[in-house]
Amino acid sequence: MARPNDMFGDLTGKVITITGGSRGLGKEMAFAFSRLGAHVVIASRKKENCEALAEEIMKETGIEALPAECHVGEWDQCDALFEKVIDHFGKCDVLINNAGMSPLYNSLPEVSPELFDKVLNVNLRGPFRLSARFGEQMVKDGSGSIINVSSVAASQPSPHEAPYGAAKAGLHSLTQSFSRAYAPKVRVNCIMPGPFLTDISDAWSEATHESLKALPLGRGGNPNEIVGAALYFASEASSFTTGAVLKIDGGLIASPS
After folding, report:
1. pLDDT under 50 in the chain at which residues?
2. What is the pTM of this model?
């Protein structure tokens, strides 16, 4: 039986693809996996950001990081990302569907078809297509892990994130269906983050920042605090875990509204 340090501590030779990988939680995960020896594929819409982070990671760790321009809301670009990873590395051990978006809108009646479709495409359709392509390959290869990243909006959406919350709730459903479709070779799980203090939080109002003090843990999450959950699902430590949704929110959902 593997010891705990064996299960968590070495990802040498693994290939991990991260969408939304050039910033925020994706960037933290990319650095963490690279420091443990994994090759990371950094995918996002902005090619220059992917290339800059890949260079930074390789300079620090000496491990190859592959930048990959990809808009996950576009079906053909999801296919192109899959083909690029397989052509370059020959495999993918872990897929992390981390890319997401939640545009602001003034009121629910003012949500346009274009905005609604954009939110559903990035947060739900893209993870579906990527999970299907990478998951089938993982089954052929004999093992793999898919990690979806949702949001507490899937369980407690505000009026200002209705399409986003619906898409993330759908991602929970995909987690369960894919976990059954690709069992027993591939594990499919989901991380459900609460308020994390990434670069996006710089745009939050003072009232929003103040409200974080009401959480049971009294603060927002630091980006590196997502790493433990990602490492758990990516490694053999979670070998008997699939179809799970792990809430990492400082107690937000458990606290009074």
Report:
1. 1, 257
2. 0.93
